[in-house]
């Protein structure tokens, strides 16, 4: 390290520009050194003097130095790492901070409990507007330890997998951190998924236990979580225990696998030493949809993920010590993992857990919460904004939003109307709005403005700028790198970064095939992007068969698989079409068996139920169109591109149809669609 720091010092002396103290309060390098002063000979002390453009350049030209410095400064290592990275994207080999040992729950809890034990770090905002629940960091640590000890007493140890099927709550956060504490691997399953979807994930991950609640409460409605878990675990022989927390007062039927969580926790010790874990030990699996096959369990590991989520949390949102961070995502998605739990807690932020919906009990819900909790950063999804902007502005304006400093948007493209409403009405035009692009696979934000560092104004509806260490690249149809502005292509990332997923659970080859084979040597995102004249990135949307319904990602193939299970349905094709509020909705083309006994109305109803039980309610197609046949190429491949145009009624521009086996199929489908529209209008 010593000789490296000496060389680094020389290297940096050429880059360093004089900056005056105070001018760069949120300057990354200065933060790095001010929070935990590095030893005088550390090369990170040099980092502290760099302006951010240079820091970005450095982060991509010398990633080892950049990330090595950040990891050494920001995380507390039980054993220091020996090597910053060992990565080969073409083989999907990704390892960061080799040889290092730490504990993620120690970073998120113990570290802060030591300095300010009584400070609140979690605020639960309940479905009904009663007073928020605000556990101190010490209480959260104790709950986590009791839960960790409970898991251990039930035979759960390092490397074991657990499913968490719970809505956002302090106990759910404690469950994630308890797993992290003992080295167990959590897989949080969004509590809106059906029992079949839950069972599929439990089976794939081979979970030894499930943690759930008796019921959930959302938007004034009860959600039968335990009943869903009961149905799921019937088909999951790996599950030995189901820990049931009592969220509501209603009695719960307890079966032979079930363990009352609060009761057993109360007899466990509130102290549980954190396990020392390797940087690359698994932290969690999170399932997400792809364009083909079953959902993939993406693997995230310890140190790199934590470093990346905490750094992005700080710099993208201009997080400052003492801020209250309000991310309204559910913990069942990666946004909840990185920006409700791990990123904010690692940074010592007070993080908000929002149990309700944006319109319950009224459309002022978010802003009432902002006023009451004095939230400094508000991070939400465009779909909710599109819903809220339909209501009168007084729902926003009657609440004091002066605490807000940064607004953030995530999960799907934010259209201009929503962007301007969020920026001008909610943020009174004074808060920077960051459109953050990233994915379950990336672990944290990859492209987003960083307003605290940039003088350049934010361009509406543009993710704009890569984060430190992220080198985006846009690739054309022929595999050529597009460097000219205004030409759209496939968005790839050319260098590894610490937060990226390491594998797909149980199928590393699928990981390689999905992300690293389409454009060898690069990580392929599945999204399209375009570079503006000013050198900013704009995301154009998915270029594969993945759709985004209210910010929830779903493969059209998954919906088709569910529909195809119906015996009267030989074939289906699902495409996504734009929707005013949800962003996109599924549109299903269905071929029915040519049989007099088949009643289309009954079958369509059964199809709706099938999707709802196989996947989730939100996945049920908005439209079903019964057609005689589907457009196919001569080799039998369904041409979804054409179906998308038909569904969007843009058939005047069908593109190349020369590969169609029988072009007359188009007129046939258009006719069915016209009838369908007429029927809907008369209804
Ligand atoms: C997909 C990832 C990011 C965490 C939540 C969703 C789309 C995400 C944006 C954005 C345009 C976006 C992409 C991406 N997406 N953010 N700011 N602008 N599109 O994570 O479920 O893994 O979905 O969401 O298509 O690939 P996810």
Structure description:
The N and C termini lie far apart (74 Å). The protein has 22 helices and 29 strands. By secondary structure, the protein is an alpha/beta fold. The strands form 9 sheets. A 6-stranded parallel β-sheet has the order 4-16-15-17-18-19, sandwiched between helices. A 5-stranded parallel β-sheet has the order 6-5-7-10-11, with helices on both faces. The protein binds 5'-O-[(S)-butoxy(hydroxy)phosphoryl]adenosine (WT7). Residues 288, 333-335, 410-413, 435-440, 463, 525-527, 539, 542, 548, 553 line the site of 5'-O-[(S)-butoxy(hydroxy)phosphoryl]adenosine.
Based on the model shown, name its key terms.
disordered N terminus, 6-stranded parallel β-sheet, 22 helices, globular, 5-stranded parallel β-sheet, alpha/beta, 34% helix, 683 residues, binds 5'-O-[(S)-butoxy(hydroxy)phosphoryl]adenosine, 21% strand, single chain
Mean pLDDT: 90
Small ligands present: 5'-O-[(S)-butoxy(hydroxy)phosphoryl]adenosine
Instruction: Choose one word for the global shape.
Output: globular
Number of strands: 29
Cα gyration radius (Å):
25 Å
Separation, N- and C-terminal Cα atoms: 74 Å
Q: Which structural category do the helix and sheet elements fall into? A: alpha/beta
- Which strand order do you get reading across the main beta sheet? 4-16-15-17-18-19
In this structure, how is the largest beta sheet organized?
Answer: 6 strands, parallel
What is the percent of helical residues? 25-40%
Low-pLDDT segments: 1-43
Estimate the strand proportion: 15-25%
Number of helices: 22
